[in-house]
From TrEMBL:
GO terms for molecular function: glucosamine-6-phosphate deaminase activity. Keywords: Hydrolase. Residues 5-226 form the Glucosamine/galactosamine-6-phosphate isomerase domain. Transmembrane segments: none annotated. This is Glucosamine-6-phosphate deaminase. GO terms for biological process: carbohydrate metabolic process; N-acetylglucosamine catabolic process.
């Protein structure tokens, strides 16, 4: 779908609200897969507004975030933990225990078990109903950098130099950007029942073309979304500009 920038946020916030309300009326939890970065900010703002003005109830919502830098303290200004609390969770009535993010503060020898536990927690929650995604210049979804296969699961991996360069401004220099991250895998993402990938701006146009029109390829993890039965790309005209 091609929509104007602010329409993307309202369309997706409305869809997420609908999923939450349906689950609430059926007395079950809504399980959301969430992303960080600049792209979802408008959606989170709308969800906060819906909570305040329309009473959208997050008390039975369960969330799983895609990724976190490694190593990363949860209270660091750069952590995705902090991003999620500041941009969404502290403004809505979600119970703390319903929130899940990969942990960037564990010793290396505990990371593998933590990643397996993360996959188990998603299964225990009944799987993800709705997964929100952005896309990086490398074609990553989550932090599934080039080389991430379709079978990949939650794991620690090295970040691509392009990704680290894109994050350099936030970290006041590329040297300060962590070299690794923990991310849900391609397979963990494809297990979601519904997926929405959002991309806005001309700097995403090239990778969007590869993701939408290219063959499924471990060098561009987003190409694997083509095989999902219910995945939609929400693009503004600038991000869609190179589609043929
Ligand atoms: C963030 C994530 C990444 C970003 C992507 C785009 O949790 O998983 O894949 O979605 O790097 O980032 P922005 O939105 O800042 O362009």
């Amino acid at each position: 779908q091609i929509l104007e920038h602010d329409q993307i946020a309202s369309t997706l916030a409305a869809r997420i609200a609908q999923i939450i309300r349906t689950a609430n009326s059926e007395g079950r939890a809504a399980v959301l897969g969430l992303a960080t970065g600049s792209t979802p900010i408008g959606i989170y703002r709308q969800l906060i507004r819906m909570h305040r003005e329309e009473g959208l109830d997050f008390s039975n919502v369960v969330t799983f975030n895609l990724d976190e830098y490694y190593p990363m303290a949860p209270d660091s200004i750069h952590s995705y933990h902090r991003y999620m609390w500041e941009n969404l969770f502290e403004h809505i009535n979600i119970p703390r225990e319903n929130v899940h993010l990969p942990r960037g503060d564990l010793p290396r020898d505990q990371v593998e078990a933590h990643c397996e536990g993360y996959e188990q927690a998603i299964r225990d929650a009944g799987g993800i109903d709705f997964q929100l995604l952005g896309i990086g210049k490398t074609g990553h979804i989550g932090f599934n950098e080039p080389g991430s296969g379709v079978e990949s699961r939650t794991r620690l991996l090295p970040l691509d130099t392009v990704t680290r360069r894109d994050a350099a401004a936030d970290f006041f220099g590329e040297d300060n950007v962590p070299t690794e991250a923990i991310t849900m895998g391609v397979a963990s993402i494809l297990d979601a029942r519904e997926i929405a990938l959002i991309a806005t701006g001309e700097h995403k146009a090239r990778v969007i073309r590869r993701a939408v029109e290219g063959e499924p390829d471990p060098d561009v993890a987003a190409t694997y979304l083509q095989s999902h039965p219910d995945a939609t790309f929400y693009l503004d005209p600038a991000a869609a500009a190179e589609l043929t």
